[in-house]
## 1
Amino acid sequence: MNVGFLGFGEVASTLSVWLKEAGADVYTSIENRSNKTQGLAKDCGVNICSDNKSMAEISDILISAVTPAEALNIAKEVGKYVKGIYIDVNNISPKTVNEAMGYIENGKTVDAAIMGGIEKEGIRVQIVASGSYAEQFSNLNQYGLNIRVISPDLGKAKALKMLRSSYTKGVSAVLLESLFFAHQLDLDQELLKCLESTECPDFRESSLSRVKNSAYHAERKSQEMEEVLKFMNNMRKLEVIHEDEHPCMVKSTGEYFKYISENMKLDKKPDNLKELFELLKD
Ligand SMILES: NC(=O)c1ccc[n+]([C@@H]2O[C@H](COP(=O)([O-])OP(=O)(O)OC[C@H]3O[C@@H](n4cnc5c(N)ncnc54)[C@H](OP(=O)(O)O)[C@@H]3O)[C@@H](O)[C@H]2O)c1
């Protein structure tokens, strides 16, 4: 099985090590890529193709793991050379993935979404897939991946990812705001104790990591919420839901993260809540 990676960053390097170990032949191209990407590809010991087009011609599975901004360009670049199945794992909207897949001339396309952080979870990270070739893509489970097919329709996997983002980032924003107010009354630790007793056992640890991470990446999170908002507003435009339904939680979450990013400049993740909230107070 030949597996090609367009883009060789965190996703491709993590998956390729495991895929190789499980017996797959892994390829990438480093033509015009940064030193960092070239170094990663060499360190992982994958086969190097002279360019993306020749890789597209020899890959049974071709995975696009570039950046959200490049997802359309790369599909356009390789579209007419793809012989196998083309999978997009970039964080883009259902509308954009449908547009990207329009460039893949053989029509063997899969929309996929990585549900979690690949650095932390490795090969077992949950990947959901949709599209008429999603079942074939899930054959990579034989090599240790954790792919779950949810629909034959392109765009459903990206939609699920957006909805998951709406939930996880919404919860992070509510936690951050509630703990900030509690901190002003010296009640943040007490609030965590109360929540811990009714939520899951590792609630304290996971919420602290969530809050610190959210504050540190507040700008990116506000941009991601803008994408989710566009996706939901598009559903209203397409009359999938009634136009009176306003995605107000998503809108507020995005605005909250924007406010945090504008009012708190963090050079590193804060060590504790005190450090974080003193910065926000200033
Ligand atoms: N990391 C995660 O846990 C995770 C989770 C969910 C989804 N995703 C999605 O998966 C995709 C990849 O994520 P990542 O974390 O692996 O990103 P990354 O570490 O930033 O790597 C991106 C890679 O794409 C390359 N690239 C950029 N433009 C390209 C182009 N036009 N042609 C070929 N290669 C190009 C970059 O090369 P240069 O170094 O030369 O720029 C780099 O090797 C992203 O769209 C992200 O949204 C990631």
## 2
Amino acid sequence: MAQLSARRVALTGLRRWRMEARFADAIISNLLAETKLSIPDRGFALELFYGVLRNLTLLDFWIGCLRTSQVDVDLRDLLRLGLYQLFLLKTAEHAAVYETVELASKRQRPTINGMLRTAGRRRNELLSRAGAQPLFVRTSHPQFLIRRWKENFGAEAAEALCEWDNEPPPVYGRINRLKIDPEKFLSLYPESGPIERRPDFVEFQSVPTRALALGHCYIQDPSTLIACELLDPKPAEKVLDACAAPGGKTAYIAQLMKNRGTIVACDRDAARLPVLKDNIARLGIGIVHSFRHDWTRGRVSKEIASVAPFDRILVDAPCTNTGVMRRRVDVRWRLRPEDLIRMPDEQFEITRTATKLLKPGGVLVYSTCSIEPEENGHLVERLLNHFPQMRLGDETSSLPFRDHFDGAFAARLINTA
Ligand SMILES: C[S@@+](CC[C@H](N)C(=O)[O-])C[C@H]1O[C@@H](n2cnc3c(N)ncnc32)[C@H](O)[C@@H]1O
């Protein structure tokens, strides 16, 4: 694998993504781990891989303009990669064509060469035809999502959201005050830039490997913290983080608790719990006890029950991820309308079971990184109907087109029993 070029890595990743039922992130990081690309080449491979995935409908529209007969899947992967470079990455035409032809088999070469050269000649026409296409083609989003976003937020916001999803996301880090204060962090890592009105956050141009290894920061979008802020945990309290892995919010909760008290961090995913443990250890946190638990199945284990009742519970529920689609690039291609029926049932069941462990007077925060009402406000209404003793406190959300961070939702419920 070691000799693969960035373009070959991207192409292999795209083929694997098409054939294997695996997340795009897992596919490309496994591939990169098997190769010895330089840092700029890794960046280029990622740009190509995610860039094509973000623009599938648009690239296929251009392929349809260039050839009306059937295009087989292998050829399509190459054409998508070539057209992405030609029209969206603005690579010089000769390089985009030559390098894509180099990736093709002998049999495919004449077709790829011919179609990409024609595309180059017809550049202005093809770009202007794309500009006249409906939003789902121009921005490569499923039509059912666009329809619901237009209904829920209006046409302008839906357009802004689709454009937002297609921008490569910035790398934000939360400074871990348990190990370092922001002033010292900025002087130690001059490559980091402060973010307006977010003193605990910085922006990086690339992944800050050293700061991460030392536990000085954690890669996180500022929107993820609204749930922890509503939870408002205090030192010495007992907190349940019901869906905790990989531990981003657990770590911030521990910081708010000044690393004093008890956090029980649960997750049903056996593979994600070691990542949580590793993160917690690196960030210098000593109050987290992690357990594997599925809130939709079986009884609560003795270890969890023995700490209950909890002062505060966070349910950062699994969701459709529609607020973080610029980071989770393939989400849009996996989501189905029926997920908006299935997910709320799961979210309700998880929260219903966890709520039973809340002490009288305690606070439960329900949160998602979705922007869909079924998973947010409607779900909270359902919980309030089910638990008459729970009262709604604050409710807050982050919307990409309004707040310019990832989408997120959090509601604070108080147990008045
Ligand atoms: C949104 S993620 C949590 C992110 C985490 N709070 C953080 O800030 O890093 C949702 C998590 O819920 C877990 N999960 C999904 N269904 C679950 C269930 N039924 N019981 C427990 N955990 C579950 C998933 O494995 C996933 O790690």
